[in-house]
Automatic annotation (TrEMBL):
PROSITE patterns: TAT. Keywords: Signal. This is FAD-dependent oxidoreductase. Residues 1-31 form the signal peptide. Residues 48-545 form the Amine oxidase domain. The keyword Signal applies. The keyword Iron-sulfur does not apply. InterPro entries: Amino_oxidase, FAD/NAD-bd_sf, TAT_signal, Zeta_carotene_desat/Oxidored. It comes from Actinomadura rugatobispora. The lineage of its organism: Bacteria, Bacillati, Actinomycetota, Actinomycetes, Streptosporangiales.
Length: 588
């Protein structure tokens, strides 16, 4: 059974039980909304949050214009490598980072089902498929762990896979002392039985490193439990990562793996480049419903009149400026862009937005390595657990069903693409001894290549021979300054540090016609993700509907699943927390 979160509860920032009643029929919602004068909304930003906001508003009869500085889709978009397509082929496809859809995503899949796609009964949602396997790769001669999805056809369970996986598991168990394994199990049990009050009042203020008691533990305990679960998955450093955030994500992954609170399997990917499979159909659908897109328009200022936002000032790439008026405004630009809009006049009316200035960003950007041949034995997804730069990668030929690189992309000599996420830009690498922030683009490529080989070829086999590399593409958000010897990043990622929840805004602000959407807005997801951005857009629309006294039906919101079987223990913990006592299972 599912429960919808009402607009009133969204406005007070409280959480509700997970919910998913079907969206009210669009025709009746639109008819109700258009029974009165149509209202205009300016959505500032065309990333995940902005597109989700526009989707829900236009289906409720609002007149929507989206202003986007760079490209629709934001960090999720595909990035064509201009000029690489030859003889009728498409350009090779770059990306800010590969798209990964955990099973506990619920809001994003709901949106995807409502985006038409030719031949798909469930719209672009049918362009997702469950990962059949993931490889956890270790270095120093240790066997990798390959986790096959046994319920999927062709899941990849062979005798070789079974042998390597069992060997790897035995090695990991042997590498971590039994007492440390017991410690981690205990810390996980403490978290899942902690009440919401304790999670927000105690674990939100404690770094993950301290929570799992990593100091003085074995190297493998620190690498797996502390470092990989933070830098490798959410790009935040373990010494400053909020335990509440890391614990919630760990619980969500575990529960979705058990089929609880999940839309699909443990994880899914798209079967084509993101723009082909999702963003372009989405933009076509919204355009057909009447949304106007103003791309290449950077929002520079919010202009105030009589305690409200009267208009926004936007500028194109040539510096030409103009103002755009609307009845309502939804700020869906990234946090570093939103901060630039916080003038003294804005903060005087909405002082709660001051906390945006203290939110922290890190780098998590993509690198695509285009290959002349498909490397053997890699599978779909690889986690390079011991890499200093916390690399993860997908092999796109294993994902893009029906695509043939030589036929469809590039110059006919590219057979595959290894798409990497570089999650740690501050730790020195193994080749140049410098962090990624201090490496030129070519050095970033060479360092990533060396770190992958350090994992894949540490047992003597050849997986990535140097002649296999055809070309590469680094996320253009990364720009190298030779004089300074450093990179800059135009698209950083907001990460949840200790105590950051109190500084994040709710969808509704002190300015009556200004609302906030973005992965930094308070949501149940509590992490900078596509799901968090989508949820925030839905919450912003509900706040706007309430402020506008709109007769249109509210937007459904899904929150992270909380198993009712733990309610009794969490209630006991709530009483213990109020009495100043530790969790029942929290041993010294």
């Amino acid at each position: 059974m599912t429960t919808r979160i009402s607009r009133r509860r969204v406005l007070t920032g409280t959480a509700a039980a997970a919910g998913a009643a079907a969206l009210l029929p669009v025709p009746s919602a639109r008819a109700a909304a258009t029974s009165r004068a149509k209202r205009t909304v300016a959505v500032l930003g065309g990333g995940m949050a902005g597109l989700a906001t526009a989707h829900e508003l236009v289906e409720r009869g609002f007149d929507v214009t989206v202003f986007e500085r760079k490209a629709l889709g934001g960090k999720a978009r595909s990035i064509p490598v201009q000029g690489t397509g030859k003889e009728g082929r498409q350009d090779l496809q770059g990306e800010h980072g590969f798209r990964f859809f955990p099973g506990f995503y619920r809001n994003v899949p709901d949106t995807m089902r409502r985006i038409p796609f030719p031949g798909n009964a469930n719209g672009v949602h049918d362009n997702m498929f469950a990962l059949s396997s993931t490889r956890i790769s270790r270095n120093d001669g240790r066997s990798d762990i390959i986790v096959p999805e046994l319920t999927s056809p062709g899941g990849g369970l062979t005798l070789d896979v079974l042998k390597e996986t069992l060997t790897g598991l035995v090695e990991q168990v042997a590498a971590i002392p039994p007492a440390e394994l017991a410690l981690f199990v205990n810390r996980f049990i403490v978290y899942v039985t902690s009440s919401d009050e304790r999670r927000l009042g105690q674990w939100e203020r404690l770094p993950w490193w301290e929570y799992v008691r990593a100091e003085g533990r074995s190297r493998d305990y620190q690498a797996i439990v502390a470092r990989f679960l933070t830098r490798g998955l959410v790009a935040v450093k373990e010494q400053v990562a909020s335990t509440r955030t890391v614990g919630s994500m760990g619980q969500a992954f575990l529960l979705s793996g058990l089929g609880l609170g999940a839309d699909g399997g443990l994880a899914r990917m798209l079967d084509a480049p993101t723009n082909e499979a999702w963003i372009d159909p989405w933009v076509r659908y919204l355009t057909g419903r009447g949304v106007r897109f103003e791309v290449g328009q950077a929002v520079e200022a919010l202009e105030i009149d009589s305690g409200r936002i009267r208009s926004v000032r936007v500028a194109d790439s040539a510096g030409r400026r103009r103002t755009a008026e609307a009845d309502w405004f939804v700020c869906a630009v990234p946090v570093e862009r939103a901060r630039a809009l916080l003038t003294p006049g804005v903060l005087a009316l909405a002082p709660e937005l001051e906390g945006l200035k203290d939110l922290h960003t890190e780098w998590m950007n993509g690198l695509q390595l285009f290959l002349r041949r498909t490397p053997a034995g890699l599978g779909e997804e690889v986690n390079f657990m011991d890499s200093p730069w916390q690399l993860t990668a997908v092999l796109q030929s294993r994902l893009w069903d029906g695509k043939d690189f030589r036929r469809d992309y590039g110059d006919g000599n590219v057979a595959d693409c290894l798409s990497l996420d570089v999650s740690d830009w501050d730790t020195p690498g193994i080749l140049y001894g410098r962090p990624a922030k201090e490496c030129s683009p070519a050095q970033v490529v060479q360092e990533c290549w060396a770190q992958m080989k350090d994992h894949l070829e540490d047992t003597g086999r050849s997986v990535l021979p140097d002649d296999i590399l055809h070309s590469w593409f680094l996320d253009p958000a990364i720009s190298w300054d030779p004089a300074a010897g450093r990179n800059a990043n135009d698209e950083p990622l907001m990460v949840n540090t200790v105590g950051s929840w109190a500084k994040r805004p709710t969808p509704r602000t002190g300015i009556p016609n200004l609302f906030m959407a973005g992965d930094y807005v308070r949501t149940s997801m509590d992490l900078a993700t596509m799901e968090g951005a989508n949820e925030s857009g839905r919450a912003a629309v509900n706040a706007l509907l309430d402020a506008a006294d709109s007769p249109a039906g509210p937007v459904d919101l899904w929150t992270l699943y909380q198993p009712p079987e733990l309610d009794g223990l969490k209630e006991i913990d709530a009483r213990r927390y109020r009495a100043g006592r530790p969790n029942l299972f929290d041993i010294p």
